[in-house]
Amino acid sequence: MRKHVVILFCDIVGSTTLGEAADPEALRDRLARYFDAVSKAIWVQGGTVEKFIGDAVMAVFGVPSTREDDAARAVRAASGIHDAVAKLSRQFEQEIGVGLHVRIGVNAGEVFVTHQPDGQFSVTGDAVNTAQRLEAAAGTGETYVGDTVAELLRDEMVLDEVGEILHKGKTVPQQVFRVAADQDRVREEREPSFVGRVGELADLTALADRSAAREEGWLLTYVGDPGIGKSRLVREFTAGRGDGLRVVTGGADAMNAGAFAPLSSWLSSLDVDWEAYVEQLLGDESAAVLQRLRSAVGRSDAQTSVEDVVWAVQTLLAALCETSPVASVWDDLHWATEAQLDFIGRTAAASRGLPVLTICLARPELFDIDSRWGGGRKSRVEDVTPLDEEDLLAIAAERIALQTKEIDVTAEDLVTRADGNPQVVQLLAQSAAAGEGLPASVTQLYEAALDRLTADERSLVEVAAVYGRRFPLAPVAATAGIDEPAEAVARLRGRNVLEVAGDGDFRFAQAAFMQTAYRTMPKRTRITRHSALADWIREHQGGILGDPVALVASHRRRAYELLQEIDGPADERQLLQSSACEAAIELLRAQQLRGDPGMRDTMDRVLDLLPSGAPGHFEIAYAVVLARNSGATVERWQGWIDRLDAAMAQDEDWQVVRSVPRNIVGIRRGGLTLLEAREEASIMVDRLRRIGPVDVFAMELAAVYLSQVEADLGNLRACHEVCLERARAAADEDRPVQERVWLNFDLQITYSASTSLTEVVEDAARLQEVVAGQRGMWGTTTAVLAAALASSGRFEEARQQWALHEKAFDGVDRAETLYDLQHYQRTLAAEGRLADAADFASQLAHRANDATVVSYAASLHAAAARWALFAGALAATRTHVDNALTLELPDSFDWLRADAQAFTVAIENALDGDRAGAFEQIEIGSRMDRPEESLDAAGIVHTFTAIVEHLLGDETASRAAAAAAKDAFERKGAVALRDQVDTWVGNAEKLRAG
Questions:
Q1: Cα 933 to the chain's mean position, in Å?
Q2: What's 187-383's CATH class?
Q3: How many CB atoms lie within 10 A of CB 241?
Q4: Which of 271, 305, 281 is nearest to 291 (CA)?
């Protein structure tokens, strides 16, 4: 049969060189990878690979079925081939030092199709030969198309005219076109000329020159009304740079509130396969960077934090800057959340030592979110003001001239209505060309533009507006009920409604148009479409840019809020509320798992959504307990507790555990004694067990409280049992967040208890990998691992772990490492650096006191006194004890005062010959760090006993106590401490000198 089809012909350039660089079998393997990649790019666009001819591939579009957009599909396949080959080329260069390059020809025409018995087919005809000739004429990395294909694509893609080519064996030349590499020119060619911003452009260019010359980063924020020219200014700037400026673009979206949501589009602008790109760019360093980036955009459950992700982005920017300056552009920041602005601001600050311009675009509403945005060193905020009349008249005249129909308006008419806004001028001209009168307002102008759309176009636009400014076509088309959306998209691009956003996505060229489309939809329609999009995203998570869990939660929440606004039926409200709650809690769990700072905002939203008395409040209460050190303000933390109390006032289980969030902090600040807290926690656990089946998080709350009190009382075995029980339960019930929390806590307990350091090191190394992306938990695990290694005598490995810790927390708020660093003094002591250990513990105590953690400060001063005693420095010891006793501790911490001075007073009593007084104080010092619970504590107590006996003159008893100390340290595996016992006891003579 005869058929009109589109032929694609692709061939390798320089295949001989490729063959010379490889073994024949290796070459066959690489060619197989090449054929697979090319075939996939063709199949994705609906084409069929007709044959392989040597190194060449021939494909057909239009068999068995013809489609109206076959030409566009073929050229998109060609672009996909070039992208895939570029990726393979980077791999080949690494493997054999030779890259891979192709050229492509695309032609359309009539062919004869022969169908084979096995279902295959072949095509013959002049169109096939011409496609091959076009390929041969193309340059490396180029796609040539014939005149027929060009005519079909003229309104859809940018083509550069090559001219007439007389192909071999032909008598008539063919008009040939090259597919432009920069398809964004589709948009630029429709834009008005760039006028009236010469000063702003000159300032931006001068600052870019300075940034590149001095290798310094700047944060620039351009603020103005929609359509005023912010984006156009930046496009004109980036297009005019001759220094190879690398532009990376991301943006905020009102429907995606995750802390790192803008990063998704930013990464995709780097490369379609940005993960492979980062791996290629960073080499060995890529693993750590990719782990954090994947977690940030929802591609991984590994835990992370703002600092982790900022470090990853800064590392990536530094690598990009090795070859050229970088413009890091963030659009639509008026839609950003506080957490998103915090992330972008920190990224800009981290890049101040690099030639990076961080350019932010926003409307004035940005400053309602953060009134201080854009301040500080190397920062500017610039207003983009309306154009003056002369500049606007020039644009208006140009727009009138470009209309296909003659219009009965003047440039002055357009300028009068435009209020200095060039985008409005363009829309006014289109309105006039459509035969409509000039609208009375900008709102009416956008509504009129919407009304001019066909039914398919409007449906597509409306669903896209529900999705967000940038959107993937598949879910939007599916929700709009459009099977073949390409033609509608092409028309919308032609009208400057949509533009290509990269990675297969599209974007509204004008945010105001999107908002008008959303606003003019009935709320009932919006509800249906938000729900449908959430369903689609949930079923097709792999094909979505950004975090699909966050997107589902946003659409579910918005559907419920809209239904509330129209006072929808109660049963439907209950259904949508339930769906919104489930989606929000699923998002919170994902954020907890990776340490996403956006979880604080999500907790607010979950509390907004949960109906009073809903069991989900227990899970939020547990999250509140974990969040007490997550950066939430005291006011916000207290607000969560108050809301929980109000919502669960009638719940029996809640009345049992309601005091946990407050009291777990109260025991550290003297609100109640540890014995009172232990009694309360034990009663909670017993009551919950008697009640019967209770919410799992109610039991988690009671268990967290009980385990913390047991640990503070020195009941390490009891705490260890609780940790193991709850970790197993969390694992059995697939609650990874809680499992990691319990394992991390248990590691700290086993390190202090009688578990061998060999086992502690093994457990810490395993856990370190599990929590590698979450800096807080990773920091604690690494600190314990380092101290355990040092006590085991593995000093170099311990130093390596502390170096990793220091690098991870470089530039971070010091409060985040306050508890980790208690283990550093132990490392110094294990190395025999007792004076350094005492000084470090004292300095850390002052930091703890400044942070109002007074009980922790007292414990650290006591530790400093112990190390000073072992060093024989009695005067320094007394100073450390005095520091502990002068702290403003509540009466409930009297035991801590006694503990802080116990060993020092024991030594002083021994020096005075008071045996009874000395051993009474040793017994006091053993009440919290109890020898029967901890081999480490046993070693310390036996050492002090040996020192006291030595000072009292009983050398036999002293040697026996020293031997007991060594035995305890030996059984623990703390050989570095064991080997110092004799030195510590020997330093007792220094104590006699005062």
A1: 42
A2: alpha beta
A3: 17
A4: 305
